[in-house]
Amino acid sequence: MHDLRFALRSLAKTPAYTCIALLTLALGIGVNTSMVSLVQTLLFRSAPYPGSERLVVLNGITRTGRLFSFSPTEIREVREALPDASSVLTVSKITYPWTEPGRPAEQLEAMLVSRELMEVFRTQPLLGRLPSPEEYDDGRNQVVLLSESFWASRFGSAPDMVGRTLRLQGETVTIIGVMPARFDYPMLWGRTEVLRPINFTPDQQNTRSYRGFLAVKRLRPGESRGSIGAQLAGLAASQEKAFPNQYPGLRYEGITLNEAVMDSVGRAISWTLLGFSVFILLIACANLANLQLARATAALREYAIRSALGASRTRLVRQLLTESIVLSVAGGLFGLLVALWLNDLFEKNVVIGGVPGSFVVPLDGPVLATALGVSIATGLLFGVVPALFASRVDVNLMLKSGARGSTAGRGHHRMRSALIVGEVFLAVVLLGGAAVMNRGFDRLLHRQLGWDPSHVAVSSLPIPEKQYPTMQSRNVFFRKLEDRLVQLPGVERAALTTSLPLFDYSANRPVLTDGASTAGRAENPVASHVMVTRDYFATLGIPLLEGRTFPENVALDGPGLAIVNASLARRFWPGQSAIGKRIASIEENNTLWREVIGVSADVEPSANPGKTSTPLVVYRPLAQEPWGYVNIVMRGAHPETLVEPMRRVIGEIDPELALEQAGTIQQQTDTILRNILIVARTTLGLAALGLVLAAVGVYGVVSNLVAQRVTEFGIRLALGALPKDVFGDVLKRGLSLAAVGLVLGIVGAYGLGRFLSSLMPRLASPDPWGLALVCFVLLLATLLACWFPARRATKVEPMSALRSE
Hints:
This protein is an alpha+beta fold. Helices cover 51% and strands 17% of the residues. The protein has a six-stranded mixed β-barrel. Helix 11 (264-298) packs antiparallel against helix 16 (410-445) and helix 16 (410-445) packs across helix 23 (723-759).
């Protein structure tokens, strides 16, 4: 308690130092705490289901990619191969058009779940009940549960919802319950408004190509994630043998829900942000260590007197460390305010699963415990070296010489110089890492797309199978829709497609070319297959490099046609014309041949930073494979004015259909890249903070050195030295220390850039020009930090300096 009281009195006597130290600590610890809470939320926070640590998402891995979702046939085989089929839940996300009298239809986000819902998620409804076993049978799944958020926002949390009906997808369903708020998990499922028993159609039950279903398993007691692969090894081998083109090298694994939420690039970005915050904290520690050394130097005579009066070295160290820890804990408390402010910014701006406001970054128990540990560790880190230096004072020399408290030995100067070198080193590495990532972000945001996104309006339109059960009925609808769209005022061109560039929704299937054989070809190249109408390329501004687009009226059962992208043409027919060649997609060991009639330019396939290469693409006529889901694309001078007319056309053709995600392509792209922009701004903010702290550290050390050498400068000026000589001496001292840190930092920044590029090839790559800019900025900041103390040294009055001595 005596040491604590002494520390409080000592800090109260030096309010300027205490305020600067608290501000530095609040920034360093606050930023670090915020990043810790961010990483915990993204990578480690438990899902909102009881015993969620026992839940795994089943994945299949082949030599050509990862199977995150399965077909109904594959899920049935997986369930049959596992010893406990009741522990595997099938989940799918779809949209349903919801209609009410007097209101236009709108899309609801629905989660389809199998009968294992309670066994796996173990969550009871807030109101009502779960579906009965019979309601999972074909034709009897006319029931739904509402999510708590949908119930509250659209029905005012009415307690009498059970038994009411909704009109979904052209049929009436009964509300049997409301799920609690904790059931929502936007990070994995996105927005969920209604839950419904899953019911596979006959076509779905017997296909392997219709993938869109997740398999979530609850591990039994004694069962581990590692055992999933062994349990399904026999199934994987039989599937590969029966369908070698679909399952080359297949194996199964179980990943946690957190791993399913965040891909490798997202995890790398999260850890990088935390690493940057650690750099900020280390720079802050170096600053405070320098301040503590300056205080210790000023108090050397006091420490010598206390030692002479019997104070042990241990007692002096303990007292000084107590002061440092008191300061760091107080700074940590203020740092919590900084962390709360930063977390609030993240919560307001980050959008997860398309649900604004669903991202919550709390300062919970584990985060607060980490913040306390970081605060204490910070106090020890910046306090131990000054404490040891101060406790090693030579009592006899200090008392006999009558030296002033500001006298310091070479050891003190070397240590302070080393701390400045370390600060500059950390700042260069931090700035270099931020420059590498932001260069990657800039390339991602301003890359050549291969198509023209300006003046384009887009929307998605699900086509319910019950309303349009046949290919012919869907084709009739699509022709009528396209004819109506091109007649709208302001529309220059219109097209339909199953996939848009940047959205990465294409179906991936193995392909082979004319003359090749499927026998023994277990690793056929995989291509993305996109169904389009004839004006797709003209509407999006994708150049046709060779050949032509699809004809006006393609027959459903007519000759198969295809347009391939340039990458596929080069892959299969290098140095040749692709026109007239034949290509086939391999679907469940059926080989469907098509004639290539055109070659398009490559386009940027995805806004996902994890996608690193341009895929092979096969464009096929939508009329020959009319899916139950299309994207509408329209080009016009003012695309924002085309959205409402698009909705009106859909309502006139079929009032029970509804658009989703309608807007301009630029709005859609901004939504996709929103979180990337937030990461870019965060890295820039951390780099700027590190630069400011390092510059302040250099300024503080150089200013202190000038204060200690006032007498020397006065004598030199009295003996005829020019002010510019004194100015140059001070400037040289500060810049020489910065130069050492800069050289070491360049090496560190280059190594960090290489490391980041290995984790995030699309977002980070070593950039010599960026590193050169970092060096320039650091030198400029150091020059400014040294300039003012150097100017002050030239203003020393010789007589005043000598008189004070």
